[in-house]
């Protein structure tokens, strides 16, 4: 008998079900023994409280194109892992006990950075864990890509495309806020795909003088409108020079809903142009996975299942230079993958004339 557990943790994305389908189909198709499948509800919460569903082949049929997660998800912050739940339950011992009670041979954890830290902790506690790199943000260290990222780029790009027509009709400057608090992968990729004029990401602090100059240069060339893509975590040079605590306090004290509104106000004041803000928000995580996402999700699922059948645990499946690989959890835990400001795509975007506000 082979007993496997599955859970999805952290912010959801479009390709979670596609990934779980990849795992389950591969295990059922290739296991030499009978297989029992347990799906934990709402991320690590289900493992802590023993909330699970016994699942069958049929549960994973028809979910390839279904966004979200059939298991539900939640955020269980790693830094709170050793703080008991409100009802006194100790999280780590409870998770270990439930894993043992079900006599699991392996736990598949679909999650991002924080969730991977918890997975590593469970590995240290002696559980057989395999992590799969989920997040629209693409900020998981150790893999060139995460599932969720391709679909998020598509949604964000469509938003930029749609804003173009109205921006052009009215001759307006639009500030479009794209997800990414610490990293700028989606704003960078969607910004290039959507033909943005300015892209501001956390990895490249901006100077408003440069942003204003870029908008004015475009106007001088006859551009009636301008599209400024900003990451949720876009940061100015002055802010980047601040102490982390002071910057956090500044963000917490913001009166406007988010950074895009502050930037829009400053652009309007300094250019005299009519400026509007668009925020696609959680639509970037919603809807069906696109074709590229489905392929990568399937590859991750198959590779994770293959490892389980080989009896290999304690790593995250990843893709490097087009090859599926297994990266030890201890190497992944606690690291973020940032956009390299000197990367080819940033350089090419700059040569094309896109401003990142740094020069
Ligand atoms: N007048 C317009 N109305 C609607 N969309 C436009 C308009 N001009 C450009 N776009 C769209 O903007 C994106 C970037 O196009 P680009 O060639 O960079 O435009 P521009 O020459 O104005 O900078 C493309 O998706 C393009 O289809
Ligand atoms: O789900 P919330 O709490 O609204 O968080 C929104 C944030 O989650 C993300 O979608 C990413 O979530 P993960 O890091 O869990 O993958 C960000 O891009 C976004 O800024
Ligand atoms: Mg993230």
Structure description:
It is built from 13 helices and twelve strands. It is an alpha/beta fold. The chain folds into two domains: 2-148 and 289-332, Rossmann fold, CATH 3.40.50.450; 150-285, Rossmann fold (3-Layer(aba) Sandwich). The strands form two sheets. Strands 1, 2, 3, 4, 5, 6, 11 and 12 form an eight-stranded mixed beta sheet that branches. It has a four-stranded parallel beta sheet with strand order 8-9-7-10, with helices on both faces. Strand 11 and strand 12 form a beta hairpin. The termini are far apart. The structure holds adenosine-5'-diphosphate, 1,6-di-O-phosphono-beta-D-fructofuranose and magnesium ion (MG). Magnesium ion binds at residues 112-113, 135, 137, 139. One of its GO terms (molecular function) is 6-phosphofructokinase activity. This is ATP-dependent 6-phosphofructokinase. It is found in: Cytoplasm. Belongs to the phosphofructokinase type A (PFKA) family. Mixed-substrate PFK group III subfamily.
Question: How are the SSEs placed, and which strands pair?
Answer:
Blueprint: E1 2-8, H1 16-30, E2 35-40, H2 44-49, E3 52-55, H3 91-101, E4 106-111, H4 113-124, E5 129-135, E6 147-148, H5 149-170, E7 173-178, H6 185-193, E8 198-200, H7 208-220, E9 226-231, H8 237-241, H9 244-252, H10 259-271, E10 275-278, H11 291-310, E11 315-320, E12 323-328, H12 329-332, H13 344-352
Parallel strand pairs: 1-2, 1-4, 4-5, 5-6, 5-11, 7-9, 7-10, 8-9
Antiparallel strand pairs: 2-3, 11-12
Helix pairs in contact: 1-11, 5-6, 7-10
């Amino acid at each position: 008998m082979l007993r496997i557990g599955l859970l999805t943790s952290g912010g959801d994305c479009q390709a979670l079900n596609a990934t779980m389908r990849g795992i389950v189909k591969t295990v059922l198709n290739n296991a030499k023994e009978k297989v029992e499948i347990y799906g934990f509800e709402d991320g690590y919460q289900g493992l802590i409280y023993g909330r699970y569903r016994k699942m069958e082949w049929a549960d994973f049929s028809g979910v390839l194109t279904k966004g979200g997660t059939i298991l539900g998800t939640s955020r269980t912050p790693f830094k709170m892992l050793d703080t008991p739940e409100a009802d006194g339950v100790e999280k780590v011992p409870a998770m270990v006990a439930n894993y043992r009670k079900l006599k699991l041979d392996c736990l598949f954890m679909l999650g991002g950075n924080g969730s991977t830290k918890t997975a590593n902790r469970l590995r240290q506690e002696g559980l057989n864990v395999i992590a799969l790199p989920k997040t629209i943000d693409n900020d998981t260290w150790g893999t060139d890509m995460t599932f969720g990222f391709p679909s998020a780029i598509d949604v964000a790009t469509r938003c930029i495309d749609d804003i173009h027509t109205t921006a052009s009709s009215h001759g307006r400057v639009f500030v479009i806020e794209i997800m990414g608090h610490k990293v700028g992968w989606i704003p960078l990729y969607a910004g290039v795909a959507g033909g943005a004029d300015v892209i501001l990401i956390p990895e490249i602090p901006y100077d408003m003088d440069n942003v204003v100059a870029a908008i004015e240069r475009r106007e001088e060339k006859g551009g009636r409108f301008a599209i400024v893509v900003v990451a949720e975590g876009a940061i100015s040079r002055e802010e980047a020079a601040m102490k982390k605590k002071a910057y956090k306090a500044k963000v917490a004290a913001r009166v406007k809903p988010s950074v895009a509104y502050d930037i829009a106000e400053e652009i309007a004041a300094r250019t005299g142009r009519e400026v509007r803000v668009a925020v696609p928000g959680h639509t970037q995580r919603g809807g069906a996975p696109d074709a590229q996402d489905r392929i990568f999700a399937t590859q991750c699922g198959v590779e994770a299942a293959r490892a389980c059948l080989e009896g290999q645990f304690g790593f995250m499946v990843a893709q490097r230079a087009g090859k599926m690989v297994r990266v030890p959890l201890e190497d992944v835990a606690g690291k973020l993958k940032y956009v390299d400001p000197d990367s080819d795509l940033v350089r090419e975007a700059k040569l094309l004339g896109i401003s990142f506000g740094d020069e």
